[in-house]
Amino acid sequence: MLRTAQFKKGYIQVYTGNGKGKTTAALGLALRAAGYGFRTYIAQFLKGQPYGEIEAVKRLGGLIVIEQFGRKGFIHVTENPDEEDIARAHRALDRSLEVMLSGKFQIIILDEINVALYFGLLSEKEVLDFLAKKPEDVELVLTGRYAPSSILRRADLVTEMKEKKHYYQKGIRARKGIEK
Asked: Fewest 10 Å CB contacts: which of 12, 56, 108, 161?
């Protein structure tokens, strides 16, 4: 398999916590990398609705590719996850592994995978097995609240977004171009 990697060593990063900005930070990393010609693949595990970043990356000539695996609406899990959501999460993980091992992308972002773990759509073992297959020269980013301690221990870098104040508490809904 011919790899076009430019990293000598890729690391595992986790962006977690209850504050705003986890996906935004991952997208910022992808944008920065695109400036140097690196290719990034983003699997959005729980998102299926339109977001501004999907339209924006179409203008970058394939340097950033986003695939959504979630339903059109938000997932709401109280006790037992729906079989469709479990199947979608497994498709996302399988596709991400295929892409990661293809040698075509230097950065892989698993957006909201920590929430997929929290909701029981994937097991920690499945994700840890995925991490064990990471090629040495691929950078891997996992986003989402509720990152389990097993993932935090495996990561090389962990950033926790902490909410101090948020206008959602005043009833402000997600705004086009800012939160979606």
From this structure: 56
